[in-house]
Amino acid sequence: MKTLGSRCAFLIGFLVGTCTLYVFLRQVWFERTFSTRSQPDGLEKTAAQLRELEEDSKNWKKERSALFNLNHPHHKGEDSHMADELYKKVRILCWVMTGPNNLQKKARHVKNTWSRHCNVVVFMSSVDDPDFPTVGLGTKEGRDQLYWKTIRAFHYALENHGDEADWFLKADDDTYVVVDNLRWVLANHTPEEPIYFGRRFKPYTKQGYMSGGAGYVLSKEALKRFVDGFKTKVCTHTTHVEDLAMGQCMEKVGVVAGDARDTNLRETFHPFVPEQHLTSKFPKSFWYWSYCYYPISEGPNCCSDLSVSFHYVDASLMYLLEYYTYHLRAFGYRYRYQPPAPLGYKNEAWDRSEGGHSYSKEQPAIPRGPLARVESPSRTDRKPVVMPPAAAGEKDPPAAAQDDKQ
Amino acid sequence: MLSEGSSFMKGMALGGIFCLLLSLLGSFTPGMQSSPEDQHHHHHHIKAPTNDELQSLSEPQMLELSQKVRVYCVIMVQPKVLVYWATAKDTWGKHCDQAVFYSSESAKALEAVDLNEQDEWAKLHKALKHAYDNSGDLRWFFVARPTTFAIIENLKYLVLAKDPNEPFYIGHTMKSGELEYVEYESGIVLSYEALRRLVNVFKDGEKCPERGRSLWKLSEEKQLAMCLKYTGVFAENGEDTQGKGLFNSKSVGSLIEDGMSKNSLDVVEGCCSDLAITFSGMSPNQMQVMMFGVYRLRPYGHNFHDSLIFLPPEGSDND
């Protein structure tokens, strides 16, 4: 009896020992892996903030409440000599209409994305903010202050940065601008011309005016005349409808409302988001139909390949548009639209190699045939091989060579 | 009583030592799954060719490769959501050398191969067999779900230097236990040889049943991986030259939003590859915007001198 009892006790002891140690080891193991994963939250956040400040200082020189571009974004493996040349020759000051409540919600994303491609950026607000930085225009906030802010912003830009730029762009903090494409539009003009560009609307004025939300850009001469106009009281604060008032002043001081459409007559400045222009059928009663100066196209013809701006762009769309414009591409794809190089800019041999004739305004001839060769003169690289286009809906002819099917 | 107590204590001590010994031997890990160091990293990656690699090829070599890299797209659609069929047809499908739609059932206005099948694995099974039988001289196969958007030129770039007479099974790989499989949602790429082997093993009802075993049903993506594994074909993760994944199971919008919530410094850099091949869960309108974003919208003055040029498809206006 006794030995049976002790044997049972032994067995039970054995089991208890195993289980206890198992649980103990598991707990230790768990704690070890857990502690290596978690990090104190507070420390991580300040580390991220420090990194952001560091990044910022690499990209911008903050001076007199403006951001001067130091690090014009470049891509690995791309040939951006043309963009670089235009960057030097077509200097653009971008001023962004914002307010103290929108700095973190909206303006910050503008700062992180498209504004990095401007030569100078100034964020205009009602209140000074030395950290962001923003310029305080001394107005209040609200829709009725829009034209006041615009007047003061343009005055500020001419006074403080008149020598640092050739063109002066106004954008909202929910406008996305492809600054490189703006340079292409402007490169065929000079800053001495009294001209301004944007999405042209026709009502209320003789020559039309530019949509405020889609952004508009004044030549230096146009800006000088604007400021002079206020000095001589030819222009005054007539209405708070900023874009219309702007257009009326421009007309009075003899600044021409330019045509920003591309060589295929497609619009470049857009008052809505890409999805709306590409897919919506605007109802015929919608104001848009009666406002547009040029005939409206719906569907793919709505928008130039070299579109300059879109409006009502929220934070995530800002990043998405930056990704679409500057990052995502189809390898080797030869675009249908081959834009002509601006007058006076060198026609690089490579432009020809992609099938484009840079100075002609019509569609260039596309090399045909499966083994169409393409020249690549000055470079040591091997000539690119051209793939035939996929024919829509056509069935492939039956494989002639059956021997590679084993 | 005392002897029982001492036996108990002896037992406990021995039990503890026994447990320790086993854990030390390593074949017994307390609780958690095997640590990352223990797992055999049989991770297969397939990276896109670098510019230098492409430049090192001679022109006749390049021509030969370009002739082989033609893609047959297997696009699964559902008559319930006709708009996805229409959108795929009107957008990215135009860039396939051949785009064929496969549907679970026939429907008016839907131009697709009627598989007459509701079971997901059986559908995939039949569609792949049909594709193999009708491939003509196309050597690469891409399988997509209705809400997937694919940039076929980037797919061609990924497999450019790979021989389709070798078995390739590429996409975004996931692991389930010991099985590594390609996620269906982000698109599946098969070379001709892989598909040939697959069609062969289809004949073996034991290894590769047409209908999943009812008791232990695997998802169709895992079933595919298993069948291919039997023929010696393993899943490989498609990556760009930087190691970023090219196949995405989320929409581009979600990926951007993920980047924003992580508060990363450069949301766009951290999002997705410049030469991404697929995004999934895209709505028809988002697909139209992506067409514009990929094939049209660009900043003037930035050029890439790629060694292969793809011309735009005929009869199309949104690319």
TrEMBL record, chain A:
<dbReference type="GO" id="GO:0046872">
    <property type="term" value="F:metal ion binding"/>
</dbReference>
<feature type="compositionally biased region" description="Basic and acidic residues">
    <location>
        <begin position="393"/>
        <end position="406"/>
    </location>
</feature>
<comment type="subunit">
    <text>Homodimer; disulfide-linked.</text>
</comment>
<dbReference type="GO" id="GO:0016263">
    <property type="term" value="F:glycoprotein-N-acetylgalactosamine 3-beta-galactosyltransferase activity"/>
</dbReference>
<feature type="coiled-coil region">
    <location>
        <begin position="43"/>
        <end position="70"/>
    </location>
</feature>
<feature type="domain" description="Fringe-like glycosyltransferase">
    <location>
        <begin position="96"/>
        <end position="254"/>
    </location>
</feature>
<keyword id="KW-1133">Transmembrane helix</keyword>
<comment type="pathway">
    <text>Protein modification; protein glycosylation.</text>
</comment>
<keyword id="KW-0735">Signal-anchor</keyword>
<keyword id="KW-0175">Coiled coil</keyword>
<keyword id="KW-0328">Glycosyltransferase</keyword>
<keyword id="KW-1015">Disulfide bond</keyword>
<dbReference type="InterPro" id="IPR026050">
    <property type="entry name" value="C1GALT1/C1GALT1_chp1"/>
</dbReference>
<feature type="region of interest" description="Disordered">
    <location>
        <begin position="353"/>
        <end position="406"/>
    </location>
</feature>
<keyword id="KW-0479">Metal-binding</keyword>
<keyword id="KW-0547">Nucleotide-binding</keyword>
<keyword id="KW-0812">Transmembrane</keyword>
<dbReference type="GO" id="GO:0001525">
    <property type="term" value="P:angiogenesis"/>
</dbReference>
<comment type="similarity">
    <text>Belongs to the glycosyltransferase 31 family. Beta3-Gal-T subfamily.</text>
</comment>
<protein>
    <recommendedName>
        <fullName>N-acetylgalactosaminide beta-1,3-galactosyltransferase</fullName>
        <ecNumber>2.4.1.122</ecNumber>
    </recommendedName>
</protein>
<keyword id="KW-0464">Manganese</keyword>
<keyword id="KW-0472">Membrane</keyword>
Automatic annotation (TrEMBL), chain B:
<keyword id="KW-1133">Transmembrane helix</keyword>
<dbReference type="GO" id="GO:0006493">
    <property type="term" value="P:protein O-linked glycosylation"/>
</dbReference>
<keyword id="KW-0735">Signal-anchor</keyword>
<comment type="similarity">
    <text>Belongs to the glycosyltransferase 31 family. Beta3-Gal-T subfamily.</text>
</comment>
<dbReference type="InterPro" id="IPR026050">
    <property type="entry name" value="C1GALT1/C1GALT1_chp1"/>
</dbReference>
<keyword id="KW-0472">Membrane</keyword>
<protein>
    <submittedName>
        <fullName>C1GALT1-specific chaperone 1</fullName>
    </submittedName>
</protein>
<keyword id="KW-0732">Signal</keyword>
<feature type="region of interest" description="Disordered">
    <location>
        <begin position="33"/>
        <end position="54"/>
    </location>
</feature>
<keyword id="KW-0812">Transmembrane</keyword>
<dbReference type="GO" id="GO:0016020">
    <property type="term" value="C:membrane"/>
</dbReference>
<feature type="signal peptide">
    <location>
        <begin position="1"/>
        <end position="34"/>
    </location>
</feature>
<dbReference type="GO" id="GO:0016263">
    <property type="term" value="F:glycoprotein-N-acetylgalactosamine 3-beta-galactosyltransferase activity"/>
</dbReference>
